[in-house]
Amino acid sequence: MKKYLTLTVLHILLGIMIANYRDLSFPFGLIVLTVATFHILYSRNQNNQAAFWAAYMVGLEILLRMTGGFLVYEAGKYSVVFFLALGLLTEKAPRPQPLPIFFYAFLLIPSIAVVDFPDFLHFRKDVSFNLSGPLSLIICTIYFYKRLQNLESLISILRLVVLPLISVIVYLTLVTPELSEIEYGTQSNFKASAGFGPNQISIIMGLGILITGLALYFGKTITGMFIGDLLLMASLLVRGLATFSRGGMIGGVAALGILVLFSFLFSNRVIPLPKAIAYSLGAFMIVLLSWNYVNEISENRLQYRYQGINYRTGQAKDITSGRLLILEHELNLFYENPLMGIGPGMIREIALRGNYVANTHSEYSRTLAEHGLLGLLGVLILLIFPIKYILQQPKELYPISFAIIFLVFFTMFHSAMRLAMPGFLFGLIFFSSTKQTRP
Protein backbone atom coordinates (compact mmCIF):
# COMPACT_ATOMS: atom_id res chain seq x y z
CA MET A 1 0.00 0.00 0.00
CA LYS A 2 2.78 2.42 0.97
CA LYS A 3 4.66 1.50 -2.21
CA TYR A 4 1.71 2.47 -4.41
CA LEU A 5 1.23 5.74 -2.56
CA THR A 6 4.92 6.55 -3.05
CA LEU A 7 4.70 5.80 -6.76
CA THR A 8 1.62 8.03 -7.02
CA VAL A 9 3.42 10.95 -5.40
CA LEU A 10 6.45 10.45 -7.65
CA HIS A 11 4.25 10.59 -10.75
CA ILE A 12 2.52 13.72 -9.51
CA LEU A 13 5.98 15.27 -9.15
CA LEU A 14 6.92 14.02 -12.63
CA GLY A 15 3.91 15.80 -14.11
CA ILE A 16 4.82 19.01 -12.29
CA MET A 17 8.46 18.85 -13.43
CA ILE A 18 7.67 18.25 -17.11
CA ALA A 19 4.99 20.95 -17.06
CA ASN A 20 7.57 23.46 -15.82
CA TYR A 21 10.64 22.06 -17.61
CA ARG A 22 9.42 20.43 -20.80
CA ASP A 23 12.98 19.63 -21.91
CA LEU A 24 13.16 17.01 -19.15
CA SER A 25 10.79 14.80 -21.14
CA PHE A 26 13.40 13.43 -23.54
CA PRO A 27 16.07 12.54 -20.93
CA PHE A 28 13.40 10.95 -18.73
CA GLY A 29 12.27 8.76 -21.63
CA LEU A 30 15.88 7.82 -22.30
CA ILE A 31 16.40 6.92 -18.63
CA VAL A 32 13.30 4.68 -18.66
CA LEU A 33 14.50 2.93 -21.83
CA THR A 34 18.00 2.40 -20.41
CA VAL A 35 16.92 1.22 -16.94
CA ALA A 36 14.30 -1.11 -18.40
CA THR A 37 16.80 -2.67 -20.79
CA PHE A 38 19.35 -3.38 -18.07
CA HIS A 39 16.67 -4.62 -15.67
CA ILE A 40 15.31 -7.13 -18.19
CA LEU A 41 18.78 -8.32 -19.17
CA TYR A 42 20.05 -8.59 -15.59
CA SER A 43 16.98 -10.46 -14.34
CA ARG A 44 16.67 -12.61 -17.48
CA ASN A 45 12.97 -11.79 -17.21
CA GLN A 46 12.53 -14.30 -14.40
CA ASN A 47 9.69 -12.32 -12.82
CA ASN A 48 8.02 -10.95 -15.95
CA GLN A 49 9.99 -7.70 -15.85
CA ALA A 50 9.52 -7.18 -19.60
CA ALA A 51 5.73 -7.11 -19.21
CA PHE A 52 5.91 -4.55 -16.40
CA TRP A 53 8.18 -2.21 -18.36
CA ALA A 54 6.09 -2.60 -21.52
CA ALA A 55 2.95 -1.76 -19.54
CA TYR A 56 4.64 1.32 -18.11
CA MET A 57 5.59 2.48 -21.60
CA VAL A 58 1.99 2.04 -22.79
CA GLY A 59 0.92 4.59 -20.20
CA LEU A 60 3.99 6.80 -20.63
CA GLU A 61 3.69 6.96 -24.42
CA ILE A 62 1.20 9.85 -24.44
CA LEU A 63 3.19 11.99 -21.98
CA LEU A 64 6.42 11.58 -23.92
CA ARG A 65 4.74 11.98 -27.31
CA MET A 66 2.96 15.21 -26.39
CA THR A 67 6.06 16.76 -24.77
CA GLY A 68 8.69 15.85 -27.36
CA GLY A 69 10.16 12.96 -25.38
CA PHE A 70 10.58 10.67 -28.41
CA LEU A 71 13.06 10.87 -31.28
CA VAL A 72 10.50 9.26 -33.60
CA TYR A 73 6.71 9.40 -33.36
CA GLU A 74 6.21 5.64 -33.10
CA ALA A 75 8.85 5.17 -30.38
CA GLY A 76 6.22 4.10 -27.84
CA LYS A 77 5.21 1.08 -29.90
CA TYR A 78 8.82 0.27 -30.74
CA SER A 79 9.74 0.40 -27.04
CA VAL A 80 6.96 -2.04 -26.13
CA VAL A 81 8.10 -4.37 -28.92
CA PHE A 82 11.73 -4.07 -27.79
CA PHE A 83 11.02 -4.77 -24.10
CA LEU A 84 8.88 -7.83 -24.78
CA ALA A 85 11.18 -9.20 -27.47
CA LEU A 86 14.11 -8.76 -25.10
CA GLY A 87 12.18 -10.61 -22.41
CA LEU A 88 11.47 -13.50 -24.78
CA LEU A 89 15.10 -13.71 -25.85
CA THR A 90 16.58 -13.64 -22.35
CA GLU A 91 14.27 -16.02 -20.53
CA LYS A 92 15.17 -19.69 -20.67
CA ALA A 93 11.78 -21.43 -20.67
CA PRO A 94 10.33 -22.43 -24.07
CA ARG A 95 7.08 -20.72 -24.98
CA PRO A 96 3.91 -22.03 -26.69
CA GLN A 97 3.33 -20.24 -29.99
CA PRO A 98 0.09 -18.58 -31.20
CA LEU A 99 0.05 -19.95 -34.75
CA PRO A 100 -2.90 -17.82 -35.96
CA ILE A 101 -0.95 -14.66 -35.13
CA PHE A 102 2.04 -15.87 -37.14
CA PHE A 103 -0.34 -16.44 -40.05
CA TYR A 104 -1.73 -12.91 -39.54
CA ALA A 105 1.81 -11.52 -39.69
CA PHE A 106 2.51 -13.43 -42.90
CA LEU A 107 -0.65 -12.04 -44.51
CA LEU A 108 0.56 -8.44 -44.11
CA ILE A 109 3.85 -8.93 -45.98
CA PRO A 110 2.88 -9.40 -49.69
CA SER A 111 1.19 -6.01 -50.10
CA ILE A 112 4.47 -4.21 -49.38
CA ALA A 113 5.42 -5.13 -52.95
CA VAL A 114 2.67 -2.94 -54.45
CA VAL A 115 3.38 0.32 -52.61
CA ASP A 116 4.07 3.31 -54.83
CA PHE A 117 5.82 6.10 -52.95
CA PRO A 118 7.76 8.95 -54.58
CA ASP A 119 10.90 8.30 -52.51
CA PHE A 120 12.35 6.05 -49.82
CA LEU A 121 11.65 8.57 -47.03
CA HIS A 122 7.91 8.43 -47.70
CA PHE A 123 8.12 4.64 -47.95
CA ARG A 124 9.91 4.30 -44.60
CA LYS A 125 7.68 6.73 -42.70
CA ASP A 126 4.28 5.61 -43.98
CA VAL A 127 4.96 1.88 -44.05
CA SER A 128 6.42 1.94 -40.53
CA PHE A 129 3.53 4.12 -39.31
CA ASN A 130 0.94 1.66 -40.58
CA LEU A 131 2.74 -1.57 -39.68
CA SER A 132 4.11 -0.55 -36.27
CA GLY A 133 0.69 -1.15 -34.72
CA PRO A 134 0.29 -4.68 -36.11
CA LEU A 135 3.92 -5.38 -35.16
CA SER A 136 3.27 -4.44 -31.53
CA LEU A 137 0.11 -6.58 -31.52
CA ILE A 138 2.02 -9.57 -32.90
CA ILE A 139 4.90 -9.35 -30.40
CA CYS A 140 2.57 -8.72 -27.45
CA THR A 141 0.49 -11.77 -28.37
CA ILE A 142 3.58 -13.97 -28.75
CA TYR A 143 4.83 -12.80 -25.36
CA PHE A 144 1.62 -13.23 -23.35
CA TYR A 145 0.22 -16.31 -25.09
CA LYS A 146 -0.54 -18.89 -22.40
CA ARG A 147 1.82 -17.20 -19.95
CA LEU A 148 0.72 -18.24 -16.46
CA GLN A 149 -0.31 -15.44 -14.15
CA ASN A 150 -3.09 -14.93 -11.62
CA LEU A 151 -5.42 -11.98 -11.23
CA GLU A 152 -3.07 -10.33 -8.77
CA SER A 153 -0.21 -10.19 -11.27
CA LEU A 154 -2.56 -9.05 -14.06
CA ILE A 155 -3.73 -6.08 -11.99
CA SER A 156 -0.11 -5.32 -11.09
CA ILE A 157 0.73 -5.07 -14.80
CA LEU A 158 -2.29 -2.87 -15.52
CA ARG A 159 -1.49 -0.64 -12.53
CA LEU A 160 1.75 0.37 -14.24
CA VAL A 161 -0.21 1.55 -17.27
CA VAL A 162 -2.16 4.01 -15.12
CA LEU A 163 0.66 5.52 -13.05
CA PRO A 164 2.03 7.65 -15.94
CA LEU A 165 -1.53 8.82 -16.62
CA ILE A 166 -1.41 10.56 -13.24
CA SER A 167 1.50 12.58 -14.65
CA VAL A 168 -0.54 13.31 -17.79
CA ILE A 169 -3.45 14.63 -15.70
CA VAL A 170 -1.10 16.84 -13.66
CA TYR A 171 0.63 18.10 -16.82
CA LEU A 172 -2.67 18.95 -18.52
CA THR A 173 -3.96 20.68 -15.38
CA LEU A 174 -0.89 22.91 -15.21
CA VAL A 175 -0.41 23.81 -18.88
CA THR A 176 -4.02 24.24 -20.04
CA PRO A 177 -6.46 26.99 -19.05
CA GLU A 178 -8.99 26.30 -16.32
CA LEU A 179 -11.62 24.04 -17.85
CA SER A 180 -14.33 26.54 -16.87
CA GLU A 181 -12.52 29.27 -18.87
CA ILE A 182 -12.25 27.34 -22.14
CA GLU A 183 -14.63 28.26 -24.94
CA TYR A 184 -16.30 25.05 -26.04
CA GLY A 185 -17.80 24.24 -29.40
CA THR A 186 -19.01 20.87 -30.63
CA GLN A 187 -15.70 19.70 -32.05
CA SER A 188 -12.73 17.98 -30.43
CA ASN A 189 -11.14 20.44 -28.03
CA PHE A 190 -7.40 21.00 -28.47
CA LYS A 191 -7.25 23.61 -25.71
CA ALA A 192 -8.23 21.01 -23.11
CA SER A 193 -5.56 18.62 -24.42
CA ALA A 194 -2.69 21.14 -24.47
CA GLY A 195 -2.69 21.30 -28.27
CA PHE A 196 -2.10 17.57 -28.59
CA GLY A 197 -4.55 15.17 -30.25
CA PRO A 198 -7.76 15.11 -28.18
CA ASN A 199 -8.56 11.70 -29.64
CA GLN A 200 -5.42 10.13 -28.18
CA ILE A 201 -5.88 11.84 -24.81
CA SER A 202 -9.47 10.61 -24.66
CA ILE A 203 -8.43 7.04 -25.52
CA ILE A 204 -5.78 6.83 -22.85
CA MET A 205 -8.07 8.43 -20.24
CA GLY A 206 -10.73 5.84 -21.14
CA LEU A 207 -8.17 3.08 -20.63
CA GLY A 208 -7.32 4.53 -17.22
CA ILE A 209 -11.01 4.54 -16.29
CA LEU A 210 -11.34 0.85 -17.10
CA ILE A 211 -8.18 -0.17 -15.22
CA THR A 212 -8.92 1.96 -12.15
CA GLY A 213 -12.47 0.65 -12.05
CA LEU A 214 -11.26 -2.92 -12.50
CA ALA A 215 -8.79 -2.59 -9.63
CA LEU A 216 -11.42 -1.14 -7.31
CA TYR A 217 -13.89 -3.81 -8.31
CA PHE A 218 -11.51 -6.52 -7.16
CA GLY A 219 -10.59 -4.76 -3.93
CA LYS A 220 -7.29 -3.29 -5.16
CA THR A 221 -6.09 0.28 -5.61
CA ILE A 222 -3.88 2.12 -8.06
CA THR A 223 -2.82 4.95 -5.77
CA GLY A 224 -2.66 2.98 -2.52
CA MET A 225 -5.78 4.68 -1.13
CA PHE A 226 -9.44 4.04 -1.87
CA ILE A 227 -10.27 7.76 -1.85
CA GLY A 228 -7.24 8.40 -4.04
CA ASP A 229 -8.57 5.99 -6.66
CA LEU A 230 -12.00 7.63 -6.59
CA LEU A 231 -10.36 11.01 -7.19
CA LEU A 232 -8.22 9.47 -9.94
CA MET A 233 -11.25 8.02 -11.71
CA ALA A 234 -13.09 11.34 -11.51
CA SER A 235 -10.02 13.17 -12.86
CA LEU A 236 -9.68 10.71 -15.74
CA LEU A 237 -13.35 11.20 -16.59
CA VAL A 238 -13.26 15.00 -16.40
CA ARG A 239 -10.06 15.37 -18.44
CA GLY A 240 -11.29 12.85 -20.99
CA LEU A 241 -14.74 14.40 -21.35
CA ALA A 242 -13.22 17.88 -21.65
CA THR A 243 -11.41 16.84 -24.84
CA PHE A 244 -14.84 16.46 -26.50
CA SER A 245 -13.39 13.40 -28.23
CA ARG A 246 -16.03 10.76 -27.74
CA GLY A 247 -14.43 7.46 -28.73
CA GLY A 248 -12.12 7.03 -25.76
CA MET A 249 -14.77 7.94 -23.21
CA ILE A 250 -17.45 5.74 -24.73
CA GLY A 251 -14.99 2.84 -25.00
CA GLY A 252 -13.67 3.13 -21.43
CA VAL A 253 -17.06 3.55 -19.75
CA ALA A 254 -18.70 0.85 -21.89
CA ALA A 255 -15.86 -1.58 -21.12
CA LEU A 256 -16.34 -0.87 -17.42
CA GLY A 257 -20.04 -1.61 -17.87
CA ILE A 258 -19.19 -4.92 -19.54
CA LEU A 259 -16.93 -5.79 -16.60
CA VAL A 260 -19.80 -5.24 -14.17
CA LEU A 261 -22.46 -6.95 -16.30
CA PHE A 262 -20.35 -10.04 -16.96
CA SER A 263 -19.42 -10.19 -13.29
CA PHE A 264 -23.11 -10.50 -12.44
CA LEU A 265 -23.48 -13.22 -15.06
CA PHE A 266 -20.33 -15.28 -14.59
CA SER A 267 -18.33 -14.54 -11.46
CA ASN A 268 -20.51 -14.01 -8.40
CA ARG A 269 -18.24 -16.51 -6.67
CA VAL A 270 -15.41 -13.99 -6.93
CA ILE A 271 -17.38 -10.81 -6.17
CA PRO A 272 -20.29 -11.04 -3.71
CA LEU A 273 -23.51 -9.65 -5.14
CA PRO A 274 -24.04 -6.85 -2.54
CA LYS A 275 -20.49 -5.62 -3.12
CA ALA A 276 -20.95 -5.73 -6.89
CA ILE A 277 -24.17 -3.70 -6.67
CA ALA A 278 -22.57 -1.12 -4.36
CA TYR A 279 -19.60 -0.80 -6.69
CA SER A 280 -21.84 -0.41 -9.74
CA LEU A 281 -23.89 2.36 -8.11
CA GLY A 282 -20.72 4.13 -6.97
CA ALA A 283 -19.16 3.97 -10.43
CA PHE A 284 -22.38 5.23 -12.00
CA MET A 285 -22.47 8.21 -9.62
CA ILE A 286 -18.85 9.16 -10.42
CA VAL A 287 -19.57 9.01 -14.16
CA LEU A 288 -22.78 11.02 -13.75
CA LEU A 289 -21.20 13.72 -11.57
CA SER A 290 -18.21 14.07 -13.93
CA TRP A 291 -20.52 14.31 -16.94
CA ASN A 292 -22.71 16.93 -15.26
CA TYR A 293 -19.68 19.00 -14.26
CA VAL A 294 -18.17 19.16 -17.75
CA ASN A 295 -21.57 19.59 -19.38
CA GLU A 296 -22.36 22.51 -17.07
CA ILE A 297 -19.08 24.38 -17.58
CA SER A 298 -19.42 23.85 -21.34
CA GLU A 299 -23.00 25.23 -21.31
CA ASN A 300 -24.49 21.89 -22.42
CA ARG A 301 -22.21 21.66 -25.43
CA LEU A 302 -20.82 18.35 -24.21
CA GLN A 303 -24.31 16.92 -24.54
CA TYR A 304 -24.65 18.43 -28.02
CA ARG A 305 -21.32 16.91 -28.97
CA TYR A 306 -22.36 13.41 -28.00
CA GLN A 307 -25.73 13.86 -29.68
CA GLY A 308 -24.12 15.11 -32.90
CA ILE A 309 -25.96 18.45 -32.79
CA ASN A 310 -24.58 21.84 -33.88
CA TYR A 311 -25.04 24.06 -30.84
CA ARG A 312 -25.43 27.21 -32.96
CA THR A 313 -28.15 25.94 -35.29
CA GLY A 314 -29.61 23.13 -33.21
CA GLN A 315 -29.47 20.94 -36.31
CA ALA A 316 -28.07 17.43 -36.45
CA LYS A 317 -24.69 17.09 -38.14
CA ASP A 318 -22.46 14.18 -39.14
CA ILE A 319 -22.18 12.38 -35.81
CA THR A 320 -19.15 10.46 -37.10
CA SER A 321 -17.14 13.69 -37.70
CA GLY A 322 -16.28 12.58 -41.23
CA ARG A 323 -15.20 9.08 -40.27
CA LEU A 324 -18.01 7.48 -42.26
CA LEU A 325 -16.74 9.13 -45.47
CA ILE A 326 -13.22 7.89 -44.74
CA LEU A 327 -14.58 4.41 -44.09
CA GLU A 328 -16.48 4.43 -47.40
CA HIS A 329 -13.38 5.67 -49.22
CA GLU A 330 -11.26 2.85 -47.79
CA LEU A 331 -13.86 0.22 -48.62
CA ASN A 332 -13.98 1.54 -52.20
CA LEU A 333 -10.20 1.17 -52.40
CA PHE A 334 -10.65 -2.44 -51.29
CA TYR A 335 -13.29 -3.08 -53.96
CA GLU A 336 -11.01 -1.57 -56.62
CA ASN A 337 -7.91 -3.48 -55.44
CA PRO A 338 -9.29 -6.70 -53.96
CA LEU A 339 -6.35 -9.05 -54.38
CA MET A 340 -3.41 -7.38 -52.60
CA GLY A 341 -4.80 -3.95 -51.80
CA ILE A 342 -2.92 -0.72 -52.42
CA GLY A 343 -0.05 -1.39 -49.99
CA PRO A 344 0.62 -0.21 -46.42
CA GLY A 345 0.66 3.57 -46.04
CA MET A 346 -0.83 4.24 -49.47
CA ILE A 347 -4.18 5.52 -48.16
CA ARG A 348 -2.59 8.73 -46.95
CA GLU A 349 -0.43 9.01 -50.08
CA ILE A 350 -3.49 8.72 -52.33
CA ALA A 351 -5.30 11.30 -50.21
CA LEU A 352 -2.39 13.74 -50.49
CA ARG A 353 -2.27 13.31 -54.25
CA GLY A 354 -5.95 14.19 -54.34
CA ASN A 355 -5.26 17.39 -52.35
CA TYR A 356 -7.10 16.30 -49.24
CA VAL A 357 -5.94 14.66 -46.04
CA ALA A 358 -7.84 11.63 -44.79
CA ASN A 359 -5.94 9.76 -42.10
CA THR A 360 -7.44 6.35 -41.49
CA HIS A 361 -9.46 5.88 -38.31
CA SER A 362 -10.40 2.21 -38.58
CA GLU A 363 -7.83 -0.56 -38.45
CA TYR A 364 -10.34 -2.86 -40.10
CA SER A 365 -11.06 -0.80 -43.24
CA ARG A 366 -7.40 0.25 -43.44
CA THR A 367 -6.32 -3.39 -43.44
CA LEU A 368 -8.83 -4.22 -46.18
CA ALA A 369 -7.81 -1.27 -48.36
CA GLU A 370 -4.07 -1.74 -47.97
CA HIS A 371 -3.88 -5.56 -47.93
CA GLY A 372 -6.89 -6.72 -49.93
CA LEU A 373 -8.27 -10.21 -49.44
CA LEU A 374 -5.20 -11.14 -47.41
CA GLY A 375 -6.14 -8.28 -45.11
CA LEU A 376 -9.68 -9.61 -44.85
CA LEU A 377 -8.30 -12.91 -43.60
CA GLY A 378 -6.12 -10.97 -41.17
CA VAL A 379 -9.11 -9.05 -39.79
CA LEU A 380 -11.03 -12.31 -39.29
CA ILE A 381 -8.08 -13.72 -37.33
CA LEU A 382 -8.00 -10.64 -35.09
CA LEU A 383 -11.71 -10.94 -34.37
CA ILE A 384 -12.11 -14.71 -34.00
CA PHE A 385 -8.85 -15.85 -32.39
CA PRO A 386 -9.13 -13.88 -29.09
CA ILE A 387 -12.86 -14.58 -28.66
CA LYS A 388 -12.28 -18.30 -29.13
CA TYR A 389 -9.38 -18.20 -26.66
CA ILE A 390 -11.41 -16.31 -24.03
CA LEU A 391 -14.26 -18.80 -24.24
CA GLN A 392 -11.82 -21.59 -23.41
CA GLN A 393 -10.79 -19.88 -20.15
CA PRO A 394 -12.55 -20.18 -16.75
CA LYS A 395 -15.80 -18.22 -16.69
CA GLU A 396 -14.58 -16.20 -13.71
CA LEU A 397 -12.19 -14.49 -16.13
CA TYR A 398 -14.87 -13.56 -18.68
CA PRO A 399 -15.58 -10.13 -17.11
CA ILE A 400 -11.96 -8.97 -17.35
CA SER A 401 -11.19 -10.59 -20.70
CA PHE A 402 -14.33 -9.41 -22.49
CA ALA A 403 -14.03 -5.89 -21.05
CA ILE A 404 -10.44 -5.65 -22.31
CA ILE A 405 -11.10 -7.14 -25.75
CA PHE A 406 -14.14 -4.90 -26.23
CA LEU A 407 -11.98 -1.85 -25.57
CA VAL A 408 -9.38 -3.14 -28.03
CA PHE A 409 -11.91 -3.84 -30.79
CA PHE A 410 -13.68 -0.51 -30.25
CA THR A 411 -10.44 1.50 -30.20
CA MET A 412 -9.20 -0.17 -33.37
CA PHE A 413 -12.52 0.71 -35.03
CA HIS A 414 -12.51 4.45 -34.30
CA SER A 415 -8.79 5.22 -33.94
CA ALA A 416 -6.92 2.38 -35.68
CA MET A 417 -3.65 1.56 -33.85
CA ARG A 418 -2.19 5.02 -33.34
CA LEU A 419 -1.14 4.07 -29.81
CA ALA A 420 0.66 1.08 -28.34
CA MET A 421 -2.39 0.47 -26.14
CA PRO A 422 -4.60 -1.72 -28.39
CA GLY A 423 -1.77 -4.03 -29.41
CA PHE A 424 -0.60 -4.46 -25.82
CA LEU A 425 -4.08 -5.15 -24.47
CA PHE A 426 -4.83 -7.52 -27.33
CA GLY A 427 -1.82 -9.61 -26.35
CA LEU A 428 -2.58 -9.36 -22.65
CA ILE A 429 -5.90 -11.20 -22.89
CA PHE A 430 -4.01 -14.35 -23.95
CA PHE A 431 -2.61 -14.88 -20.47
CA SER A 432 -3.39 -18.25 -18.91
CA SER A 433 -4.82 -18.21 -15.40
CA THR A 434 -3.39 -20.27 -12.59
CA LYS A 435 -5.70 -22.11 -10.24
CA GLN A 436 -5.67 -19.06 -8.00
CA THR A 437 -8.11 -16.62 -9.60
CA ARG A 438 -9.01 -14.63 -6.52
CA PRO A 439 -7.03 -11.40 -6.00
**First-residue to last-residue Cα separation:** 15 Å
Beta strands, count? 0
Number of helices: 17
Secondary-structure element order, as H and E?
Answer: HHHHHHHHHHHHHHHHH
Structural class: mainly alpha
Q: Give the amount of beta strand, in percent.
A: under 5%
Low-confidence stretches: 435-439
Helix share, percent:
55-70%
The shape is: globular
Radius of gyration, whole Å: 21 Å
Describe it.
This protein is mainly alpha-helical. It has a domain at 1-94 and 151-177. The chain is built from 17 helices and no strands. Helix 3 (49-66) packs antiparallel against helix 4 (75-90), helix 10 runs antiparallel to helix 11 and helix 13 (323-336) crosses helix 15.
Question: What would you say about this model in short?
Answer:
With 439 residues, the chain is an all-alpha fold. 68% of the residues lie in helices and 0% in strands.
Topology of this structure?
Blueprint: H1 2-20, H2 25-43, H3 49-66, H4 75-90, H5 99-107, H6 120-144, H7 151-175, H8 198-217, H9 226-242, H10 246-266, H11 273-297, H12 301-307, H13 323-336, H14 346-353, H15 363-391, H16 398-415, H17 421-428
Keywords:
single chain; 439 residues; mainly alpha
